[in-house]
Amino acid sequence: MANDRNARLVYTTDGGEVKPPRDDRASPPSPAGGKGIRIRLDRRASGRVVTLVCGVPGAPAEVAALARDLRAACGSGGTVREDTIELQGDHRDKIEAALAARGLRSKRAGG
């Protein structure tokens, strides 16, 4: 019963203080596992190539603004999904240069 998300204590005969359940979702881990900004290439099932930028620090609005600037620098389309910036095509060199110009350090991941 302790593992059930919807279960809560209704009545107890212990007479002691009832502590609220611990919420493990309060502080989600960073998408890159705290390893900094990672740039990797992904191939979709349709054969398209997508460049992923993971672990970008900042609020969602800041990540969206960075994604907009990266799309303009690369001259391609893209989106932000779950704190990951996706750009259409292989633009790893351009993204590294754009992030370095902003003072952000990044690493290539995935070979």
Written account of the structure:
By secondary structure, this protein is an alpha+beta fold. The chain is built from two helices and five strands, in the order E-E-H-E-E-H-E. The chain is 23% helix and 23% strand. The chain has a five-stranded mixed β-sheet with strand order 3-4-2-1-5, with helices on one face. The protein is elongated, with a radius of gyration of 21 Å. The mean pLDDT is 82.
By DSSP (H or I, 4+ residues per run), the number of helices equals 2
Largest sheet: 5 strands, mixed
Tell me the structural class: alpha+beta
Oligomerization category of the chains in this entry: single chain
- Sequence of secondary-structure elements: EEHEEHE
Task: Give the radius of gyration.
Answer: 21 Å
Cross-sheet strand order for the largest sheet:
3-4-2-1-5
Tertiary shape: elongated
- The tally of strands reads 5
Q: What average pLDDT do the residues reach?
A: 82
Share of residues in strands: 15-25%
Work out the helicity level.
10-25%
User: Whole-Å distance between the termini?
Assistant: 44 Å
Low-confidence stretches: none
Concise summary:
This protein has 111 residues and is of the alpha+beta class.
SSE topology sketch:
Elements (H helix, E strand, L loop, with lengths): L36 E7 L5 E6 L5 H15 L3 E4 L2 E5 L3 H10 L4 E3 L3
Parallel strand pairs: 1-5
Antiparallel strand pairs: 1-2, 2-4, 3-4
Any key phrases for this structure?
111 residues, alpha+beta, five-stranded mixed β-sheet, 2 helices, 5 strands
